[in-house]
Recover the amino acids of this structure.
């Protein structure tokens, strides 16, 4: 019965999302570019390589500590371009508004998008606005798309390039975004307010690629968290990724919040973090470049790539045991981005 | 009071939409590309000119005679690219789904998008899916974005190029899409079922541009209908556009439906029509090219461009009087696309 309807989990970035993509979207839309399922599509045109990406944002609440739906929509597009190794060229923004939304809310969100775009140095060049009757949408949804320019003559980072021996580097603490939104939505208060990490990562990625041009994979661990993204990379590259729980940067408040709510921080969305999988020989340089960047000061080596068991992610726990780290099956955190 | 909230009219393509764009979006996002407000943005990159467009689709019902939300979403992006004179290069599709949507509906829409994209010869290369809790959206919304390639070395059609003496050509009957959706939604039946004109126009535009390379403006009259689009072109070009009611192609059933519902067909959305404003010397060729194309067989000259009164659209009625044709102020037809 449930197989015939759309569930929240179909949008959560985990197993059900992957099923929907393969059983429906790839079946009908499948083509050599889409099939790669990168954070951005890579197009060739007139001797140039372009990156192209789109994401809808439905986060609830619209404003949360550290960001809002507008900042999220701009950073989301920029980070998907960055994960392809692209420099952002232009963004578009399409708004679906609920009749009765107050103008002030829309203006705050618009101002925030404008600030985020200015911070990146990219323009919003195309847009659209639809308004639906009261009750047909929840206040506002935003869809951003982005075009980026890819550098010439280098092999691009891509999800199937992780190789045994590679080093897995994470640019900072995990689970900040998801827990900031959850705490705000549920009205939970901790010793200090948890801030979303929502931030554009084009600068951090450019610094990493300059220091370590052979980076094999880049990915921003949004919906489904680190667990979903590492599983995807392990599957796509046909390798095993082994990570160390003790190396994982997690803020104290976020750790406490996750324990209280019974949520694994490895399953929680990030909006300002990047994973880089780097050949051993360039790992030191990549890590150094991240740490020197203001958005990567807590960057850390969190694991290694191994040959087997292919397609698996294994977590070495603080206690020293080794367990399979699976993709989240359901959706603990709906409307997180 | 009403000035402080978003109304349906803000998304209707008329005066309120224009106000929202200028008072909010251009104020915060304004840049030389966005400010042109073309159907697509035009970007320069590495010696190439690219067109970039985005639109959200929220049509209700999802399926209507002649189309569905999926076909509409693909044709909408393709036609915005075509109106910029661009050949479609790639599309993206972002879905916002309501929890509980039946899978079969999503599959029908996906199949329809796939068919429409195949018809155009363009691929959907990037996508996204978000699911929101039951009641937070009405079944499904789709946002498509498109990238197109613009030909080298020619001056592109654009909304500010209409000049006195130019001829206004319309590719076929008006108001079919809006009245098909309205009739379907309201359960109104006429002698025969009104079909939406929803169709991709890249081929028709290519044929027109080949026959008449000096075309000054191209525009697809969607939300707000012919009246909104002609007013925009008149304002942007600083000219008067005078059209003849007697020359306006309208199907008999659509005319009757509009009369019954008290709706002016000039205010109703089209999804498979193009307006071309063409220098006198090329008008014959442009009209001929349209008429030879299967989607332009009922193309007609509907008016002329004059110098004054600048920024106005005037309609010469069947009775011979001349009246100002204004932009629709409210929204008679919410969720028409």
């Amino acid at each position: 019965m449930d197989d015939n309807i759309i569930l929240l989990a179909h949008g959560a970035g985990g197993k059900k999302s992957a099923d929907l993509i393969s059983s429906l979207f790839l079946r009908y839309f499948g083509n050599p570019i889409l099939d790669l399922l990168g954070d951005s599509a890579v197009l060739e045109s007139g001797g140039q390589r372009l990156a192209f990406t789109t994401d809808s944002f439905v986060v609830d609440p619209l404003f949360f500590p550290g960001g809002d739906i507008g900042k999220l929509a701009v950073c989301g597009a920029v980070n998907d371009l960055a994960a392809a190794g692209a420099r952002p060229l232009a963004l578009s923004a399409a708004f679906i508004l609920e009749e009765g939304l107050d103008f002030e809310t829309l203006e705050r969100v618009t101002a925030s998008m404008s600030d985020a775009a200015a911070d990146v140095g990219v323009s919003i060049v195309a847009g659209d606005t639809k308004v639906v009757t009261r009750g047909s949408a929840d206040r506002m949804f935003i869809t951003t798309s982005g075009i980026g320019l890819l550098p010439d003559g280098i092999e691009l980072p891509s999800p199937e390039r992780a190789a045994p021996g590679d080093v897995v580097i994470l640019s900072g603490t995990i689970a900040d975004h998801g827990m900031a939104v959850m705490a705000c939505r549920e009205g939970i208060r901790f010793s200090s307010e948890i801030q979303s990490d929502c931030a554009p990562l084009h600068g951090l990625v450019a610094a990493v690629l300059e220091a370590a041009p052979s980076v094999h994979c880049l990915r921003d661990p949004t919906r489904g968290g680190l667990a979903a993204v590492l599983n995807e990379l392990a599957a796509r590259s046909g390798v095993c990724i082994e990570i160390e729980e003790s190396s994982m940067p997690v803020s104290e408040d976020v750790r406490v919040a996750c324990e209280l709510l019974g949520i694994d921080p490895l399953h929680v969305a990030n909006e300002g973090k990047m994973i880089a999988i780097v050949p051993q020989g360039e790992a030191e340089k990549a890590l150094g470049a991240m740490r020197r960047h203001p958005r990567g000061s807590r960057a850390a080596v969190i694991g290694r790539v191994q040959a087997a068991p292919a397609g698996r992610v294994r977590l070495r726990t603080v206690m020293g045991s080794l367990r399979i780290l699976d993709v989240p099956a359901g959706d603990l955190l709906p409307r997180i981005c």
Summary: Residues 176 and 188 of chain B are 14 Å apart (CA to CA). Chain B touches chain A through 82 residues (CB under 8 Å). Residues 103-120 of chain B form the longest helix (18 residues).
